[in-house]
Structure formats: structure tokens, C-alpha cells
Amino acid sequence: MKSTLAILLALASAAVAQNGVLNFPLNRGVPHFRVGNLRQNVKRDTYSQALINNITGGAYYAEVTVGTPGQKVSVVLDTGSSDLWVVSYQADLCTDSRIQREWGDSCDKTYNPNKSSSYKVLEEDGFEIRYLDNSTAAGDYITDDLKIGGTTIKSLQMGYATKTVRGAGILGVGYSSNVASTQRYPNLIDQFVAQKLITTKAYSLYLNDRRSDTGNILFGGIDKDKFIGDLSVLPIYMAKGQAEPIHFEVEMQSVSLDLTKDGKTTKIISTDPSLSQTSTIAILDSGTTLSYLPAKITDQIHSKLNVYVDEMWTGLTFIDCKYLTSNPDMRLSFTFGSNATISVPVWEVVLDLLGDTQSDLPFKMPFQRACIFGIQSTAGFQEDGFNEDWALLGETFLRSAYVVYDLTHHQIGMAQANLNSTTTDIIELTGADSGLPGGLVGVKEQQTSKDSSESGSGSSTDKDGGAKETETVTAGSTAPTGTTTSGAKDSDSAAAGLSARGGAVGALAVAGLTGFFALVGGAAVAL
Fold first, then answer.
1. Cβ contacts of residue 170 below 8 Å, gap of 6+?
2. Measured by CB atoms within 10 angstroms of the end CB, which terminus of the chain is less buried, N or C?
3. Omega of the bond prior to 31 within 30 degrees of 0, cis?
4. What is the pLDDT of residues 69-115, one digit of tens each?
């Protein structure tokens, strides 16, 4: 069975607004993938990579043009890293069938520097980047002209990857303090300002509904028609003594689970004693498909939803697809600061992507129809030397949020996304501003809806119209792996805070957690 999940996104032609804002539409395409040919005799990490590559179909892609004359190449839009790098036409993944089989990926549109008159080598073998799943890309640092949506950046420094397990490169739009080079250099967002295309290092990201085929990234502006209610302004977290941020991190106060089946809201409060008694640091990362929370939070969510954790092969958490129909109003709500709450609906976290391919998996699950759960645990990263008491909010969260990233003033603007909005009301952000404007209000309520068998009514009351009962619980113990979790858990003490960090996970790039999430697109067909 071939999935019809539409994940490939291209940055189409840019509309340069009269006020200097750069608006890049996101268009969703349909890659094809299947699970049947996956090797089942490889180590767990590799199998997990291949499984995710073929099932979740994640990542938001841009098609940009590099060189003179221009060559179209594929890159993944990523707020969790800072480098732009492209895949070489001679990359090992492009030429080695063994690597392609092992990683379940192949090359998409690649770059040949021999065909560009504006190409220059800056540092041979100087580019190397490592991601949290321990995968890497390596090669040279070069400069060449980049054209993105009709706008050209001259002599942009980028990585030229000759060794990679990714079929597409990365378009990093994070802080330049997180570039892979030992010497800091201006990245794409820096160059937008330096070349006077926008006046401040800020952009807004609107991924839109998972079932929709539209969205956009807006450099230098905010679209008030793309969010509901107030736009909350949050400081980007920096550890004591840290001069500037590395990642887009914010303090997350709580996560609550709203189940209509029993009319109760389960509220889990995450605690990081090194910061305060009620917050965990969360990284906002568009380059990661799923979302990851500390075990003290996921254990309780998993217990309430009777999930299945597979540690033998994939490290993933699975959930019964029945929640899409039996609890269509199920929601997870994330609270930041004093007044920012983002509600994530069931169809964003119960991902019905396996279909008939379940019979091809090397393990059995206790569900008649299993879905991938969009909320996973960070506990698995302890073996890589990371404290688990942090969160990474990927696409399963970000599609429900409208997020403004202000790199100049180290702020995040956040509001509930107005899904499938067809209108615009854009305001410009300028270099003269002292920060993100306060008091910005979007539309009053969700303007449109997307018909789908997965969606619910979004009701906040029980079936009798009454208010839901609230149940408050504390952190639970780790769920057994390879089994269904159920029932309430005893509370445990909060985990120790993240130590010696310049950000929750240091200077590592964050894209592609637990695999690179289906780096297929365009002409590339994974297996």
C-alpha cells in the first residue's frame, strides 16, 4: 500500500510585499513510499531510520537555485539548525546502493559545482555537522549564489556535502551562533538583512493543517490573519552566563491531555529544578517530524492512552487508531509563559500512516489498527549523554501554532494557528522596533475547517454539554518497553536539571531527531 500522506513542500515564487516583507508560500506534494522492502537484520538505530523514512514522510522542503547558471536543489526548511548545505551530485548516498538500502533514502535534486561559474571553495573538508541521532553530513565549505523564490543572495557560504545519508540538504534558519563551522559566519537570515531585503532578523512560520496543501514562511513580517486571539511574546531561554541563544528555546509550563471519553482533563506539570518548579525548556524545531517530551510527562500521557512502546526495533511509541473516531475531540494543550496555550488536535498526534504495511513490520502490536503517536519520549537520548529533562516540539506541535522567531531581540511570538486561512493581513517588522510588538490580535476564532474523517468538532465540553472535570497528576515512572502501558502511575521526584548547557542540547543541530524522517521528494522514491 502506498501512503497518500502529502509531505513534500517547496518554497514557491516569493511575493515581495511593498513594505519589504518577503513571503514564501509553502506547497505540499505527494512522495510515494512503502515499507515492504526494508531490511530487518540491521541494527536498531538504522532500522528506526529506515522505518521513519518510509512511514512518516516528514520534513518541509524548499526548492532553491544554486550557482550560475542556477541549479535546482532540494533542502529541508529547519528552524533547529543554522547552516545551509546542499547534496553533492557525487555524494556517497547518490552512488552507493548499500547506503540507499540501509537508510531507505536516495538523492533528490543535487548540486554540481563544476557547472557554476560563481562557485568558490572556502575550506576543503571543513564542513561537518552532527545531528542528535548521530548522523552526519560532511564535505567542503563553499560560496555560491542562492536564489530563493525570486530573491538572490550573492556569494552565500554553505556546506557542500559529499558524505551524507540524507537525500536533501538543509536550509537552516536558526541563529548563526549554531553554525557547524568553528568560525562563525553570516547565514541566510543574516544575509537577508545585510543585503537589505528585510530590516530585522525575524520571520513567521505557518505550517498549517497536516491535511492541507498550503502554508508559508514570512521573512520580516507577521500575518495577523494566520493566528487566533492574542500573539503572546516569550523570551528565548538562555542559560546563566550565555551571551546569546543557540536554539529557539522557551519555557514550557505544562502539558494537559483532554479526553472526552471520560470527561476529564489530565494535567501534567513538568518540573526542571535548575530553572523553576514549574517549567521545562522546549526547543521549537520545524526540522523534526514528531515531538519529544520528558519521560515524566510522556509516561502519564502513555498510561492514559494505553500506548505501545517498541524499543526493540524502532524506539517509537504507537497508539490505537480508534482514538481518531472514538475520541475525535481529544487534544493536547501546551502552556508557555503566563498566557500562551497551544491546543493540538487528535489528528496531529494520532498518525494513521501504517495502513496495510503493519504486516511487514518485524513486531506485533496489541491494536487491530496501529497509529504512530506524535508524542515520543526524550528518555532514549540519555544513552547519548543528554539529560532527558527537556522537550523538542516538532511538526506535530508546530502545525497547530503560529510562531514568530525574532533573532534580533531574542523573542518568540506564539498563538493558536488559524488553520487553512485564505486571507492575509501582514504587518512589517522593522529594525527600529525594540522587540516584537505587543498587543497584536489575530482573528477572533477559527475561520475555516478542513473536512476529514480524522477531524473532530473541537468541542471543549462533554457530550452532555457540561464542563469537564479536571484531574491533576504528577510525574510517573518509566513505562515498560514492548508492552502496552495502562493505569495510573505512582509519582516520582523530578529529574535533575540540564547541566552545563548552552541551551538544552548544547550546540548540536537539532534537525532530524531519531532519524531524518523520510527525506524523499520530487524524483526520489524511497524503496
1. 75, 76, 78, 81, 83, 84, 85, 137, 287, 509, 511
2. N
3. no
4. 999 998 888 888 889 999 999 999 999 988 887 776 788 789 999 99
CA distances from residue 167 to 9, 123, 522, 526 in whole angstroms, order as listed: 14, 23, 11, 10
Q: If 0-12 CB within 10 Å is exposed, 13-18 middle and 19+ buried, where does residue 500 land?
A: exposed
**Residue 233 near residue 438 (C-beta atoms within 8 A):** yes
For residue 19, CA distances in Å to 23, 206, 429 come to: 11, 20, 9
pLDDT higher at 411 or 352: 411
Determine the Cα–Cα distance for residues 265 and 259; give it in Å rounded to an integer: 6
Which residue is catalytic, options 83, 108, 145, 285? 285
Contact between 46 and 102 (Cβ < 8 Å): yes
Q: 3-state secondary structure string, 391-459?
A: EEECHHHHCCEEEEEECCCCEEEEEEECCCCCCCCEEECCCCCCCCCCCCECECCCCCCCCCCCCCCCC
Q: Which of 78, 133, 258, 320 is catalytic?
A: 78
CA gap 183, 173 in Å, rounded: 18
Which amino acid appears at position 349 of this protein? V
Q: Which residue do the cell numbers 485564505 mark?
A: 422
CA distance linking residue 472 with residue 460, whole number of Å:
18
Residue 59 has what pLDDT? 63
DSSP alpha helices (H): ranges in 307-394? 323-326, 346-349
Cβ atoms 59, 5 nearer than 8 A: no
Answer for the pair 318, 308: CB distance below 8 angstroms, yes or no: yes
Is residue 9 within 8 Å of 215, Cβ to Cβ?
yes
Q: CB burial class (10 A; 0-12, 13-18, 19+) of residue 43? A: exposed
* pLDDT band at residue 382 using 50, 70 and 90 as cut-offs: low
Is the pLDDT score of 454 beyond 70?
no
CB-side exposure of 27: number of CA atoms within 13 Å? Answer: 9
Selection from 226, 216, 204 nearest residue 421 by Cα: 226
Query: Is 78 in the active site?
Result: yes
